[in-house]
Amino acid sequence: MLAGHFGVAGIVKAWRPALPMGALLVATQLPDLLFAPLAVAGIETGAPAEEGLSGYGSLLISAPYTHSLVGNLVFALLVGVLVHVFLRERWGRDAGLVLGGVVFSHWVLDLLVHRPDMPFLPGGAGDLPLLGLGLWESPVAAAVVEGGLVVAGTALYAWRTLRDSPDRTRAWLYSVGIGLLLVGSFVYDLTAS
């Protein structure tokens, strides 16, 4: 759900224009950005959920640290505190709360689409049931949800940018650029195998 996470960044940017889009994009992807080096190290993995399955939503992910509920709460708290301590004067008094929420939104969206492969506690401690509602089992439904986030993020970002910017050319370029990023990541999600 790469594109859906990016769609959240567009939605939040429209609501909180003082927050840098780059920070929002990174916040929406933080668990996946942390997953990448752990996957390279063999600590976390992704494999087809079933033999021969490929394409959109086909992976069963073993991400016991980066995609655990408690791990994501910790990531959100750390980002929130760091932004509050170091950037609140620049980005606003509640920027830490907003960015922390954006980080946690990743887990909430993943809960909707992932098969039950996300642990409650980091490392799968406690042998608790794995979490995931499995919307990826219905690729069309998952694509509709993700596409809705992309459309909402693009439309709200473009509306706010065009409404508030004194430089219309720059506003259009930013809006088109973000729109292309969101649509491109959505197409990538749908065609990746």
Descriptive overview:
The protein is mainly α and 193 residues long. Helices cover 65% and strands 4% of the residues. Strands 1-2 form a two-stranded antiparallel ribbon.
Characteristics of this structure?
193 residues, mainly alpha, 2 strands, 65% helix, 4% strand
Instruction: Report the C-alpha radius of gyration, rounded.
Output: 17 Å
Low-confidence stretches: none
Q: Report the biggest beta sheet as strand number plus sense, adding barrel if it closes.
A: 2 strands, antiparallel
Distance between the termini: 13 Å
Number of alpha- plus pi-helical segments: 6
* Spatial strand order of the main sheet: 1-2
Overall outline: globular
Helix share bin:
55-70%
Structural class: mainly alpha
Q: Spell out the helices and strands N to C.
A: HHEEHHHH
Strand content: under 5%
Topology, number of strands:
2
Q: Average the pLDDT over all residues and give the rounded result.
A: 88
Please render the helix and strand layout as text.
Layout: H1 2-15, H2 21-40, E1 45-48, E2 59-62, H3 69-91, H4 95-113, H5 139-164, H6 168-191
Antiparallel strand pairs: 1-2
Helix pairs in contact: 1-2, 1-4, 1-5, 1-6, 2-4, 3-4, 5-6
